[in-house]
């Protein structure tokens, strides 16, 4: 305090100030912040958004309980997704300005001109891989990931020679030695490159979309040139192929991703080679002939709705095996190449135009899983909108049965002639009588502008795998055995032919068989399934299936590009 000032005034002012509550609060706050700063709180994880996406993906397959639905609803909210995205940005310290170009020296005419590229450092990977050129020994850019940082800056191209990184000469350096150099720099990264002769890549095949037929986890793939550059995906995901330049590693992004940054995926060639080398016999078995077995295809008329065609009359059952030659085999040339089973199926977006027939809804699943029940519920929910095909039979017409409504009653001779002319999707024999569903009976339902519900053995799906039917193949899968026991306590299934009564309750062996058959079907025919639904709680599953079919009718969906 200056001596000429009024010391009393000053000291009372100082005393007031030091005693003030607000100052004390400020000091406490300061101390807290200091403590907080020294503790350096670390995020539990940096990829909450990705984790939420994965959780949603896994829950999507379940779609059963209300808690799951609620969680899916919460996670799909834009606010929650934004919140997770912000969390990740903070966790990754990713709040630097993005990629402004600070300096560039690009005298394009001079072949050996050195280009200086400066980029702001961020947590985002550079999006380029580097290799040593065998002939010159120089470090060159091997690959620029589409949509990545380097690609967006647009000044680093495949084939460019790296001369310096942050002032460090790259001569005699190994590709992996660049990483610590990049890590050391604080904010900006400077590259000195000699532009390669290859120049900028033209985007190729940007409109190629494929459905993945396998799960891929780059971190488990020892062959991928750079694990961080890999794109993780699951069977059924639709991918956009952004580059097929490299025969072994394609670049792709997941269509459903909010941030469609390109990643490396195994090329079709590589994946198919891998699968063939791994287990050739499992994938390329010859198709099994349809086993036919029958319990009479009795119909039930409920509230005046004719349910003919609801119950399969030629149901495959392991207990009553009687094999019969199926009239049509998978025609290799007619489908999207059997080799695509193990890799990618090319798909295109499809939206049904007004007046066009609906996609044929094919339900596939092991016997007893609930195909008939789901079809019945759908049919009852909207008989004007859903329909089932009327089957053919050679058995006698019964009282109250109407020809062409309950069955098409035809002679044995006519039936056998139809078999020879490949008119049936499936047929079987029981008690010396034929039963079958014809292609024409399906066409008739579609021509009435109804959604045709059909359940078939997976073998028969291939027959309907055409542009004409555009089948939406839904696999109805049993839940885990404990849940089967619980949910099917009161259910009844068709009995074997040896048993006196036509139906009986489920036994433990039925559950085991159902689960095993489902697994076999999924292994062998999984590539045909567009949707997998676990038949757990019937009401929830029905609602989910109904919603799924509504979505299918209205929204754009992905269908194979090559349907015969
Ligand atoms: N989610 C479920 N919960 C409880 N019971 C179910 C469920 N789904 C189906 N059921 C019952 O299981 C029994 C068998 O179902 P359903 O007849 O639909 O099987 P399916 O797949 O058509 O097999 P199949 O053609 O051999 O009869 C029926 O009594 C049905 O009501």
From TrEMBL:
SUPFAM superfamilies (UniProt xref): L27 domain (SSF101288), P-loop containing nucleoside triphosphate hydrolases (SSF52540), PDZ domain-like (SSF50156), SH3-domain (SSF50044)
Protein name, as recorded: MAGUK p55 subfamily member 7
Domain SH3: 205-275
Protein's organism: Hemibagrus wyckioides
Cross-referenced InterPro entries: GK/Ca_channel_bsu (IPR008145), Guanylate_kin-like_dom (IPR008144), Guanylate_kinase_CS (IPR020590), L27_C (IPR014775), L27_dom (IPR004172), L27_dom_sf (IPR036892), MAGUK (IPR050716), P-loop_NTPase (IPR027417)
Record-annotated PDZ domain positions: 116-197
Domain of life per record: Eukaryota
Family membership: Belongs to the MAGUK family.
Residues passing through the membrane, by range: none
């Amino acid at each position: 305090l200056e001596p000429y000032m009024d010391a009393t005034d000053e000291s009372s002012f100082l005393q007031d100030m030091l005693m003030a509550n607000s100052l004390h609060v400020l000091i406490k706050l300061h101390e807290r912040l200091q403590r907080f700063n020294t503790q350096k709180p670390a995020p539990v994880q940096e990829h909450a958004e990705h984790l939420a996406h994965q959780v949603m993906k896994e829950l999507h397959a379940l779609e059963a309980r209300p808690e799951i639905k609620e969680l899916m609803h919460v996670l799909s909210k834009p606010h929650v997704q934004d919140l997770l995205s912000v969390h990740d940005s903070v966790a990754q310290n990713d709040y630097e300005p993005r990629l402004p170009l600070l300096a560039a020296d690009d005298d394009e005419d001079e072949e050996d001109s050195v280009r200086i590229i400066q980029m702001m450092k961020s947590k985002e990977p550079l999006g380029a891989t580097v290799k040593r050129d065998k002939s010159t020994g120089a470090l060159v850019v091997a690959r620029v990931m589409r949509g990545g940082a380097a690609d967006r800056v647009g000044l680093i191209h495949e084939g460019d020679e790296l001369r310096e990184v942050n002032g460090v000469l790259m001569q005699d350096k190994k590709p992996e030695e660049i990483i610590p150099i990049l890590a050391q720099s604080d904010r900006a990264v400077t590259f000195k490159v000699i532009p390669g002769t290859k120049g900028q890549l033209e985007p190729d095949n940007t409109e190629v979309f494929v459905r993945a037929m396998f799960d891929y986890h780059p971190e488990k793939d020892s062959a991928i040139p750079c694990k961080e550059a890999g794109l993780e995906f699951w069977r059924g995901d639709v991918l956009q192929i952004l580059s097929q330049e490299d025969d072994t590693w394609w670049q792709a992004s997941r269509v459903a991703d909010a941030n469609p940054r390109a990643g490396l995926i195994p090329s079709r060639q590589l994946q198919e080679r891998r699968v063939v080398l791994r287990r050739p016999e499992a994938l390329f078995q010859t198709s099994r002939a349809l086993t036919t077995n029958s319990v009479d295809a009795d119909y039930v008329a409920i509230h005046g709705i004719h349910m003919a065609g609801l119950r399969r009359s030629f149901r495959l059952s392991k207990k009553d095996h009687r094999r019969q030659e199926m009239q049509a085999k998978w025609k290799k040339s007619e489908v999207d190449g059997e080799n695509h089973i193990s890799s990618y199926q090319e798909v295109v977006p499809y939206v049904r135009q007004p007046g066009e027939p609906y996609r044929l809804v094919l339900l596939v699943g092991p016997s007893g899983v609930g195909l008939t029940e789901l079809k019945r519920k759908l049919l009852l929910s909207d008989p004007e909108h859903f329909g089932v095909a009327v089957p053919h039979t050679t058995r006698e017409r019964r009282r109250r049965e109407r020809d062409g409504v309950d069955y098409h009653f035809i002679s044995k001779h006519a039936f056998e002639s139809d078999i020879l002319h490949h008119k049936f999707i499936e047929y079987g024999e029981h008690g010396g009588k034929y039963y079958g569903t014809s292609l024409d009976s399906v066409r008739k339902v579609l021509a009435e502008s109804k959604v045709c519900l059909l359940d078939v053995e997976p073998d028969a799906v291939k027959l309907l795998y055409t542009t004409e039917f555009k089948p939406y193949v839904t696999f109805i899968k049993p839940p885990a055995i404990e849940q089967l026991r619980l949910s099917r306590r009161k259910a009844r299934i068709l009995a074997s032919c040896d048993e006196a009564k036509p139906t009986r309750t489920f036994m433990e062996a039925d559950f085991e068989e159902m689960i095993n058959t489902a697994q076999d079907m999924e292994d062998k025919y999984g590539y045909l399934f567009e949707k997998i639904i676990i038949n757990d709680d019937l009401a929830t599953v029905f609602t989910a299936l109904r919603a799924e079919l509504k979505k299918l009718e209205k929204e754009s969906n992905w269908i194979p590009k090559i349907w015969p």
